[in-house]
DNA sequence: ATAGAAATGAGAATCTTAAGCATCAGGCGG
DNA sequence: CCGCCTGATGCTTAAGATTCTCATTTCTAT
């Protein structure tokens, strides 16, 4: 449960932290903005301030519990860190997010970094396109 | 010269536009924030407002003259569009930016998008690491 | 239960970028 | 080459996202 993850991360167990962690765990899309989390808290009747949401998310990030992603658009997106690294595909129309991991790409990245004289630490790869989901507003195109 | 590129892009030839285009063309790093461009203008004695810099850059982007990049950090980065697509490696320490294009990665991206049922339109790939340049503040590590 | 330390909430502050509006200046007809 | 007209600029103010400040509340360890 949330309590354990928080303690494990060396964070004091508080109601806001529990609720936020819970929302991240139970989210359908798994990729949420601070605002979206804040709204969910309000909807579920919790009186938690937006500043706290941002603060807690930043702490979670520092503790390695969540990752902060920068897709196009102005707001950062947060997702629970479930262990493995992955990259993202996003639908320009409906915002659907898919995750993938391609070992060929990962490998090429390391190679390229080496060739350019960099000790690679991290990377961000995001593919943008139109999905073909039936619920997508501009399906087919 | 700048005049031609502006006319070609259907933009009226004005002093701010010429200067900004010139700065982008002559920049050593080739990847500049709006602020950086603004400072260069000030340094060269031009009385051009920051709002104009942002406005012009947005127009340049719409005209396909420049690309707006979103690296980590809060400010957008602009670079002259010199034709070919490429991705970036950035040094976490000194901010040095290198460009690369890897056909294997490009291909895998298209393939992945297809497999996930997306019609890919664009992508952003940025590698972050420490460079081994002698001028890099944390060389070697 | 109590005290001390850490966390929260509300609002102000910051940072980046985008308006709004009065003034100015390229581009074209004369 | 001159003057108009429309679009461009500058300055100021606004907007959106995130962080900071500080008084108050809540954990956690006695
Ligand atoms: Mn993800
Ligand atoms: Mn570039
Ligand atoms: Zn879609
Ligand atoms: Zn470096």
Q: What is the strand and helix layout of this fold?
A:
2 copies of one chain form a homodimer.
Chain A: H1 2-8, H2 15-26, E1 32-33, H3 34-43, H4 50-62, E2 66-69, E3 77-80, E4 87-91, E5 97-100, H5 103-115, E6 118-131
Parallel strand pairs in A: 4-6
Antiparallel strand pairs in A: 1-3, 2-3, 4-5
Helix pairs in contact in A: 3-4
The complex binds manganese (II) ion (MN) (2 copies) and zinc ion (2 copies).
The site of one manganese (II) ion has 5 residues of chain A, from loops.
Chain A binds a DNA duplex (30 and 30 nucleotides) through helix 2 and helix 4.
Report on this model:
Two copies of one chain form a homodimer. Chain A is an alpha+beta fold and 141 residues long. The first copy, chain A, folds into two domains: 2-80, Winged helix-like DNA-binding domain superfamily/Winged helix DNA-binding domain (Arc Repressor Mutant, subunit A, Orthogonal Bundle), CATH 1.10.10; 87-129, Dna Ligase, domain 1. Helix content of chain A is 39%, strand content 23%. Chain A is built from five helices and six strands, in the order ααβααββββαβ. The first copy, chain A, has helices at residues 2-8, 15-26, 34-43, 50-62, 103-115; strands at 32-33, 66-69, 77-80, 87-91, 97-100, 118-131. In chain A, the strands form two sheets. Chain A has a three-stranded antiparallel sheet. In chain A, strands 5-4-6 form a three-stranded mixed sheet, covered by helices on one side. In chain A, β2 (66-69) and β3 (77-80) form a beta hairpin. In chain A, α3 crosses α4. The longest helix of chain A is centred in the middle third of the chain and has 13 residues, at 50-62. At the A-B interface, α5 and β6 of A face α5 and β6 of B. The structure holds manganese (II) ion (MN) (2 copies) and zinc ion (ZN) (2 copies). One manganese (II) ion (MN) binds at residues 31, 79, 86, 88, 99 of chain B. Chain A binds a DNA duplex (30 and 30 nucleotides) through residues 12-17, 34-35, 47-52, 54-56, 58, 74-76.
């Amino acid at each position: 449960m949330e309590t354990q993850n928080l303690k494990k991360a060396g964070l004091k167990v508080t109601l806001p932290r529990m609720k936020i962690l819970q929302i991240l765990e139970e989210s359908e899309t798994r990729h949420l903005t601070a605002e979206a989390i804040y709204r969910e808290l309000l909807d579920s009747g919790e009186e938690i301030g937006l500043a706290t949401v941002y603060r807690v998310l930043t702490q979670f990030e520092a503790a390695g519990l969540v990752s902060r992603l920068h897709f196009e658009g102005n707001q950062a997106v947060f997702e629970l860190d479930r262990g493995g690294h992955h990259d993202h595909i996003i639908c320009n129309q409906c915002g659907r997010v898919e995750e993938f991991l391609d070992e060929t790409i990962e490998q090429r990245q390391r190679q390229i970094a080496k060739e350019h004289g960099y000790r690679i630490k991290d990377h961000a790869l995001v593919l943008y396109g139109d999905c073909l989901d039936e619920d997508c507003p501009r399906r087919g195109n």
